[in-house]
């Protein structure tokens, strides 16, 4: 008589190794997505900060142009430099900013510090500086990295 050898039936399902491999792949994909998201958020804050810097520079340009219609450039420069710090200079030009930019910058820039701040700048650990206007030059808005610990 021929005996039929019965093979044990294999149970259906995943092995532990297969589950671990799938979890590892999902973890790698998640870390890639998180990294890309962080980079996009950082880039968008940098764009906003650069736009705020450009808006301030345009406001200074418009303020200087308006002032020089009735005053000599030396008097306009003196008036600008008499404002002791960046927030005071921001106060001179704030009427030349759009309402949204003004609200972002004026509310976060305390007098007594030489920094113009906004939410985007704070997250980048930077501030804007409205530097002194030297003779023979033009007033500039500079983006400065905050010193460590400030």
The H-and-E topology, N to C, reads as HHHHHEE
Report, as a whole number of angstroms, the end-to-end distance. Answer: 92 Å
Supply the helix-strand structural class: mainly alpha
Coarse morphology: rod-shaped
Mean pLDDT: 86
Give the count of helical stretches: 5
User: How many independent structural domains?
Assistant: 1
Which segments are poorly predicted (pLDDT under 50) over 5 or more consecutive residues?
Answer: none
> What is the alpha-carbon Rg in Å?
30 Å
Estimated helix fraction: 55-70%
Give a quick account of the main beta sheet: strands, pairing sense, barrel closure. Answer: 2 strands, antiparallel
How many β strands by DSSP? 2
Binned strand content: 5-15%
As laid out across the biggest beta sheet, the strand order is 1-2
Explained architecture:
The chain is mainly α. It has one domain. It is 55% helix and 7% strand. It is built from five helices and two strands. It has a two-stranded antiparallel ribbon with strand order 1-2. The longest helix has 52 residues. The radius of gyration is 30 Å and the shape is rod-shaped. The termini are far apart.
